[in-house]
């Protein structure tokens, strides 16, 4: 794909097990941390309301826990307490993460300067099933509102409405591949000039996340609560909750606007297995190989230029060998090299985030190509004997690895949905941009705001911490983003400073 059809990743927002934002997520990844929680008796009894569950021999006391799913700043978005009470936490979190992602990108929707689209998917509303449906008082009085705040159809349009985003807005559903398919659809919309900015991603929140799960032989879930992708001991994955959104723009627009480009999407593809597999829920070598090869063709890159693949990597005895076989088939079209491409799976860190799984892997890959480091894939000791790594282009990246070499850092990201919808995206390190002479000016006016005095105070503390760690020479870029890339609320503060340390002290 030529630069005029490449897409820039300019912002991101994330909630994942063990991580309140994308930076915490990255730090956990590079430290090789498994963020799967081990559940105690009190957690399990509270989730199931039945002490006898503890005696089940098949109970697995593990889950990828998302903190604070009961919290929501309803007033910020103009919702009443009752509306917040009946709103699915997936929709609540998506609203908050959307604001954070747009702020990370320096995009202020209130400016009206760009047409912004929303492309995302969410999981089934467990909140509706377990907390609202049994409440006959709520269901009889607020049935219509409950539908609007819990039905998948309205997840994207709630964001568009509340943030006044006027581009295409659609909820996408392809099971586990939902959020990566959403990235693909967002890229297409940008390239068709249906929008200038796009939010893409997804959410899955299990409201009974402290309940663990019952192991069943032949199912996709692990008997011991660990995901060992590509390992000889791999027996399944672990469920988890997460929310992720990225902000995308046409690369040419991002360069023109001076955006901080995190990575470049060179190409993407989506297909379906059709009937070429043993059953509806089974994976297909042909389908997966086809989507990987098609993405490489769209991107205009050879397989041997790809240094890392963020795999679907569920850690199942059936799925892992099929995935490596499919990747090998796709790569062998253009290269005969062996053992040059690292392979990993974020599911070994945070579990399987269902509809949000693809965006978690995508954000991991974006940060890897941006920072030149490949995080370790956990729990890999011996390769699955059904996988012929020795004659393949791949090796499992079991330790933190510096990403060096003369080629641009380039990664593939895969996500495969039950039912056969497959997605693959090629991402590349951001282009080097010469700093503008004005951007290293000594002084900057740093502004921040909030919808209340308390919120403003918290914003000051956050900004102080951020700029105190700022190592750049001048503050003009920071000042410009704060002035033009943030919505300005009623309560405001400003400081004038010439370096990050001075600004941090003035704001604190």
TrEMBL record:
Ranges where the Ketosynthase family 3 (KS3) domain occurs: 4-429
Source organism of this protein record: Streptomyces alkaliterrae
Top-level division of the source organism's lineage: Bacteria
SMART domains cross-referenced by the UniProt entry: PKS_KS
Cellular component GO terms held in the UniProt record: cytoplasm; plasma membrane
InterPro entries per record: Ketoacyl_synth_AS (IPR018201), Ketoacyl_synth_C (IPR014031), Ketoacyl_synth_N (IPR014030), PKS_assoc (IPR032821), PKS_Beta-ketoAc_synthase_dom (IPR020841), PKS_NRPS_Biosynth_Enz (IPR050091), Thiolase-like (IPR016039)
Pfam family, one: KAsynt_C_assoc
GO biological process terms held by the UniProt record: DIM/DIP cell wall layer assembly; fatty acid biosynthetic process
One term of GO molecular function: 3-oxoacyl-[acyl-carrier-protein] synthase activity
Name the record gives this protein: Polyketide synthase
Tagged with keyword Transferase: yes
UniProt keyword list: Acyltransferase, Fatty acid metabolism, Lipid metabolism, Multifunctional enzyme, Phosphopantetheine, Phosphoprotein, Transferase
Keyword Hydrolase: no
